[in-house]
Amino acid sequence: MDHRTPDRLPVDFGSTGVTGMHVSCVAALRRHLGLEERPVKVHEPYQMLGLVEDDLQRALGLDVEGVFPRNTMFGFLNHGWKTWRMPDGLEVLVSEDFRTTRGANGDTLIYPEGDLSAPPSGRMPRDGYFFDTIVRQPPILEERLDPEDNLEEFAPVSGEDVEYFRREAKRSSISDCNWPKAWQRHTSTV
Length: 190
Description:
about 190 residues
């Protein structure tokens, strides 16, 4: 970040939704590397991304650690972990608010904010590995477009979320990084 040639190429698996690994890959890596076999936590159920925990980070020599939001892309908190079995039989850990039903064809349906009274917002095919979006929006009428209809995800970050990110950054190795001074000033207000 401070435009100096690094001593090596930084390695990242699992610190973002883009560099994340599917839970089956995380479980297979744990098994291959001889780490404690245990159900992998699904920290982002939309893609079924597995949490790369400290022991696996060390074994892979990773340089980047994720600080993830409190809520998943389906809008529920990651807390109160419970077991859940993937369609292929892999047992994983999911949030207590991860709520699904089975469709008539065997697909797994997941609900926004874990609310079973709402229409499902994701579908995992019965032989699938992640959720596909279920479009629940009515057709768009160009003459009725209103920008106000699309602002809820652009609200200010809540004080509760700011505190959560502060705690998570301190918990992670981020607080031990040799960040450039400008970035340290920027993050000190988070």
